[in-house]
Design a protein that fits this description.
Length: 198
């Protein structure tokens, strides 16, 4: 089985997933796809901490039900995906790219805090699923990823941008920023690099 790693760019309710295989010096993108982290049939689960635009949902049964739904649905989606990949590849781990790693309890602004709570929730779902599948995960903030990769892989940032853009060509379909970030995170895991602690 080929050596591989999986990268996730985690969003609210979903993640962009890229599977990378081969040598760390010349990785190949095998597949990219979207995985749902919340049940599409439960629209409020995409942003469970929101009661409306910029408004926090009150704690209580509704919020607890939505959060439990996300954890159950997301864990099932991601573990199914990882196990599918493990059937044909020797996965070294999972790389996660997120917008923030700030502790929500330290944020005074309600609107920013509920976004941080949702980020923490969806990130945790992916980390939990990876762990259940026997994978170690590494976490990078999106804004730090390129600089961290340039240092770890010993390549200039512009070269990495160019290479990652080219890696998506054989896959077809869109190749947006979230695909490129997931690819870079998977590449770092494939190369045996761990994320810096924040």
């Amino acid at each position: 089985m080929t050596r591989a790693a999986v990268g996730f760019t985690v969003k609210s309710g979903w993640a962009c997933v890229v599977l990378v295989s081969g040598a760390a010096t010349s990785p190949v993108v095998v597949e990219s796809r979207r995985v749902e982290l919340s049940n599409p049939e439960v629209p409020d689960a995409r942003q469970p901490y929101h009661a409306g635009f910029g408004t926090a949902r009150e704690g209580g049964k509704t919020l607890a039900t939505l959060v439990a739904s996300v954890k159950r649905f997301g864990r099932s989606s991601v573990t199914g995906l990882i196990r599918d990949y493990q059937s044909g590849h020797n996965l070294r781990g999972a790389g996660l790219v997120v917008g923030s790693v700030i502790d929500p309890s330290t944020i005074a602004n309600d609107h920013i805090r509920i976004h941080a709570l949702e980020g923490q929730l969806f990130r945790g779902v992916v980390e939990d699923a990876a762990q259940r599948c026997g994978l170690r995960s590494a976490l990078w903030r999106e804004r730090d990823l390129l600089a961290a990769a340039a240092t770890a892989l010993q390549r200039p940032e512009q070269e990495l941008r160019d290479v990652v853009s080219q890696l998506g060509r054989p896959v077809g379909g869109p190749w947006r920023a979230e695909h490129k970030s997931a690819t870079l995170a998977a590449w770092l895991v494939l190369a045996g690099r761990q994320a810096a602690r924040h």
